[in-house]
What does this fold into?
Amino acid sequence: MTRLFPPSVTSFCVQTRGVGDAGLSSSGSLRAGLSPHTPGHVGSAAFTKFPSPVHLGSTVTRRRPFLSTDHYSRTNRTNVVIGGRTLDKKVALPVAVIIGLAIAAGIGYYETSQNQITVLAAASLKKPLTALAQQYKKQTGTDVVLSFGPSGGLTEQILQGQKCDLFFSADWRYIEKLKKAGKTVYTRKFLKDYLVMVVSKDGEKKGIKNVYDITKPGVTVAVAAPKAPVGQYTENALKKLGIWDKIKSNGNLKVRPATVTQVAMMVKNNQVDVGFIYRSTAVGFHIPIVQVFPHSLTGPIIWGVAIIKGGNEEAAKKFLNFCLNHIKEFEKYGWSPA
It folds into this structure.
């Protein structure tokens, strides 16, 4: 099956057939706002306000479905009148066959559409959603077509008429924007996350140990583009810390990739010294975390989900319920339920 999406979106089909307002002192000592981080642990004794990390393998209570799964019945009736007269027997049989095939084709198309769901999602959700889509296919036989991109860009596409059944956004404000535009039939807050600073191997050699080190000469920084929520969260935090204008004027800010995934890859591949990504992304890419920023600096980082009006609403409800009942898959990557 071939599906076309805008170049900025990665698309594939899962089928079996085919930191307080305080920061750091000028000397670099810790205050209550920011938290240093070592691999495998989020937060420290010096950072008492940051919530406990989600540990891998922690016990998770299975949640009951949040949505109703009412079934809708549809009846198709076809009355055929041809010219108001009775056909000759030699003509009647071929016509009956043609009409029968046409009706069968219509029913076949309807059944196929009921066995497929189209999902647009923030790039950061690629790993857990891909795994869940594969499980869902095995259990239900329903194909889940997944398309990933920056949440802001995907929101604009939906507003402009892009067809989909379900949308997962890395910023709750985009869900509210779609709701206000009358594009949704159901919305809910889904997950929460935190902004973190990660440093490449080359960056470690330059002695980058906290966020204030990124203003030093020769340090290269990657911040996601404004259309990606993580880019907005990073700007919010760095502006409050008085760093944003400095890294721009000093030339430290080298690139603004479209997605958080691209920022993570640039750090992992030593293309930049420092990147700002989600905690969940750092966990997924196995990148050590140097600094964690609380919501008091970034603003709330809440993922949202919406069932889109005019799509396959019943199928969307079922897959969303499946995701909610398998929230552990998201917790493995550092998210927490919202």
